[in-house]
């Protein structure tokens, strides 16, 4: 689900931000950052942009249908009230 290159880039940036005193540990730190990022991101309940856009479209269609049904109910209620007044 996650782009491995993006995780690598983040891990590299984190490693580059380490103080120079950690130069001998940078390779191990980068591997650890990579593992931690993969684990943390893997636990998140995320969807892809494509899945999000599909669900957004479904929601918009459902909302439109609901509004149409609400209008039909209002029209029917109006007709019923008009008939009762006669």
How many β-strand runs? 0
**N-to-C span:** 64 Å
Q: List the secondary-structure elements in sequence, H or E.
A: HHH
Class derived from helix and strand content: mainly alpha
Low-confidence stretches: none
Annotation field: number of helices = 3
Rg measurement, Å = 28 Å
Our count of domains comes out at 2
Helix content: over 70%
Could you give a short account of the major beta sheet?
Answer: none
Q: What percent of residues are in strands? A: under 5%
Average pLDDT level: 89
Shape: rod-shaped
Question: Explain this structure to me?
Answer:
It is a single chain. This protein is mainly α. It folds into two domains: 1-46; 47-86. Helix content is 79%, strand content 0%. It contains three helices and no strands. Helix 1 packs across helix 2. The longest helix has 37 residues, at 49-85. It is rod-shaped. The protein starts with a helix and ends with a helix. 1% of the residues are buried. The model has no long low-confidence stretch (mean pLDDT 89).
